[in-house]
Amino acid sequence: MGNAKLLLVEDEPFLAKVVEDSLKQKGYTVSYAADGKKGYNLFLNHKFDLLILDVMLPYTDGFTLAKQIRKNDNNTPILFLTAKTETADLIEGYKSGGNDYLKKPFSLEELFLRVDELLKRNQKQTPINLSEISIGKYNFSYHKQELCIGDDIIKLSNREAGLLLLLYKNKNTLTDRKTALITLWGDDSFFNTRTMDVFITRLRKHLKKDSEVEILNARGIGYKLIC
């Protein structure tokens, strides 16, 4: 993934220089902008594999920039760099089209991991027929909210279907717990965390007729659908 083209939009000169130089040392091609307006112009004129956007930017903030980008491009992953940690800010970020968050201050090792994971995830993504998804021996229809194996038809709740689809989109890789909670429940409160655990248990029961299908739990981090 080291030859990927990245766009970095960050208005703190020292941090931007450190991040840009470090990513280049990893083999990435990095284009840099110090404000949202310049970042958007670079996006319009070049093809990038990943966008790294600071939230607090001059002229156009990171959330607004992401919304502008998503009007033209729904696929290129967006990683937000932010000092904001309130749940409302996280929700706004995901609603604006962000794929992941990295909270300041952060280590370069964590940045490299997030960048690599987003690039791998995006590379694997292909258009999904929501009416015919194969999960091991099961056929899953998201629109009908049905999970079928042989002659057995399992009716899923809206939440079960949404969670299973999210796990499937990231199959064989880790689905981040916070991302799942904010995407499906709107926040990552303790109550919603416990509720999601219940739905994971239900999905495991639904999928138990195929021993090759598993939902693994990385405690406190997320879940992985193996199929």
List low-confidence stretches: none
Name the beta content range: 15-25%
Count of strand segments: 12
User: Strand order, biggest sheet?
Assistant: 2-1-3-4-5
Class based on secondary structure composition and strand pairing? alpha/beta
Largest sheet, if any?
5 strands, parallel
Q: What can you tell me about this protein's structure?
A:
The protein is of the alpha/beta class and 227 residues long. Helix content is 42%, strand content 23%. It has eight helices and twelve strands. It has helices at residues 13-25, 36-45, 62-70, 87-95, 108-124, 158-169, 177-184, 190-206, and strands at residues 5-9, 29-33, 50-54, 78-82, 100-103, 133-135, 138-141, 146-149, 152-155, 174-176, 214-218, 222-226. The protein has a five-stranded parallel beta sheet with strand order 2-1-3-4-5, sandwiched between helices. Strand 4 (78-82), helix 4 and strand 5 (100-103) form a beta-alpha-beta unit. Helix 2 runs parallel beside helix 3 and helix 6 (158-169) crosses helix 8. The longest helix has 17 residues, at 108-124. It is elongated, with a radius of gyration of 19 Å. It starts with a strand and ends with a strand.
Tags for this model:
12 strands, elongated, 227 residues, single chain, four-stranded antiparallel β-sheet, five-stranded parallel β-sheet, alpha/beta
